[in-house]
């Protein structure tokens, strides 16, 4: 059962986002209902991160409206303490000189207080346990693998016990154990009624967890419905890896794209 009162947890209407001269989102409509697990797919540069940023108030709409938990961004007070957000990783490892526990604990800070709430140590340990890192609480971030660092950032979003969780490519380029730990924690969250919107490069481990896929292309929704299933001639097991595709940004515009997820990978492999 859902823990949220607003039936439409996320409601985006006719959303346009510009950055400088570029028109990044060109009229996006998106509704996510309480308890749904929705994936946002699309080729690099299609506007996924921009849409997610608009949802959490980081990118400003030039037109259109965004409502989160019933509150309209820009006019109403949004209950951000009920929203967890994991941004897309900027790059490879950074030598952040803090421990896993400290990073997770920072997820408990809010705009209304600067101190940590009572019982924070237990909550931090529970959140790290949810991503399979209970034994790394005191590890410095820089000694963890890229996948483990990413799991710490997911724990940082989970420690708030959010009703809505928004994740931007949480498993891109991470090791297999981290992908599995991530899929397991998303499954538990969905079972608990948490609403999840997750940007993915491909479905991978999450194909049985997400109920709906929204595909963006050039700033427009081109598909909203059943998640794309692996093709019969395309062995699912062989395609359960996710790769970072760091080279994609430098690649020229593809001539042929997969009609479902906009990726060029299916046509080149
Ligand atoms: N701040 C910005 N200024 C200019 N262009 C941007 C900015 N942010 C994103 N873009 C461009 O908008 C497009 C969509 O970017 P993004 O939302 O990051 O796509 P995705 O997450 O699907 O890869 C890309 O062409 C990107 O280069
Ligand atoms: Mg992105």
From TrEMBL:
<keyword id="KW-0813">Transport</keyword>
<dbReference type="InterPro" id="IPR017871">
    <property type="entry name" value="ABC_transporter-like_CS"/>
</dbReference>
<protein>
    <submittedName>
        <fullName>ATP-binding cassette domain-containing protein</fullName>
    </submittedName>
</protein>
<dbReference type="InterPro" id="IPR050153">
    <property type="entry name" value="Metal_Ion_Import_ABC"/>
</dbReference>
<comment type="similarity">
    <text>Belongs to the ABC transporter superfamily.</text>
</comment>
<keyword id="KW-0067">ATP-binding</keyword>
<dbReference type="Pfam" id="PF00005">
    <property type="entry name" value="ABC_tran"/>
</dbReference>
<feature type="region of interest" description="Disordered">
    <location>
        <begin position="223"/>
        <end position="269"/>
    </location>
</feature>
<dbReference type="GO" id="GO:0005524">
    <property type="term" value="F:ATP binding"/>
</dbReference>
<feature type="domain" description="ABC transporter">
    <location>
        <begin position="10"/>
        <end position="243"/>
    </location>
</feature>
<dbReference type="InterPro" id="IPR003439">
    <property type="entry name" value="ABC_transporter-like_ATP-bd"/>
</dbReference>
<keyword id="KW-0547">Nucleotide-binding</keyword>
<dbReference type="InterPro" id="IPR003593">
    <property type="entry name" value="AAA+_ATPase"/>
</dbReference>
<dbReference type="InterPro" id="IPR027417">
    <property type="entry name" value="P-loop_NTPase"/>
</dbReference>
<feature type="compositionally biased region" description="Basic and acidic residues">
    <location>
        <begin position="230"/>
        <end position="251"/>
    </location>
</feature>
<feature type="compositionally biased region" description="Polar residues">
    <location>
        <begin position="255"/>
        <end position="269"/>
    </location>
</feature>
């Amino acid at each position: 059962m859902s823990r949220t009162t607003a039936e439409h947890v996320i409601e985006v209407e006719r959303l346009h986002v510009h950055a400088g001269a570029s028109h990044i989102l060109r009229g996006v409509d998106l509704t996510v209902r309480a308890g749904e697990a929705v994936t946002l797919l699309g080729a690099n540069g299609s506007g996924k991160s921009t849409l997610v940023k608009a949802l959490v108030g980081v990118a400003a709409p030039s037109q259109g409206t965004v409502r989160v938990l019933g509150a309209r961004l820009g006019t109403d007070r949004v209950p951000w303490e009920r929203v967890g957000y994991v941004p897309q990783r900027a790059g490879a490892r950074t030598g952040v000189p803090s421990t896993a526990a400290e990073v997770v604990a920072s997820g408990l800070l809010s705009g209304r207080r600067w101190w940590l709430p009572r019982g924070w140590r237990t909550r931090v340990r529970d959140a790290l346990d949810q991503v399979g890192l209970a034994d790394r609480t005191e590890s410095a971030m820089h000694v963890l693998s890229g996948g483990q660092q990413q799991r710490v950032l997911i724990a940082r979003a989970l420690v708030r016990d959010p009703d809505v969780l928004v994740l931007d490519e949480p498993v891109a380029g991470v090791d297999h154990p981290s992908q599995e730990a991530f899929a397991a924690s998303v499954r538990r969250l969905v079972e608990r009624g948490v609403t999840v919107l997750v940007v993915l490069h491909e479905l991978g481990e999450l194909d049985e967890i997400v109920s709906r896929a929204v595909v963006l292309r050039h700033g427009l929704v081109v598909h909203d419905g059943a998640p794309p299933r692996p093709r019969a001639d395309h062995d699912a097991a062989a395609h359960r890896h996710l790769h970072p595709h760091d080279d994609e940004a430098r690649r020229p515009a593809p001539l042929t794209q997969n009609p479902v997820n906009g990726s060029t990978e299916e046509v080149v492999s």
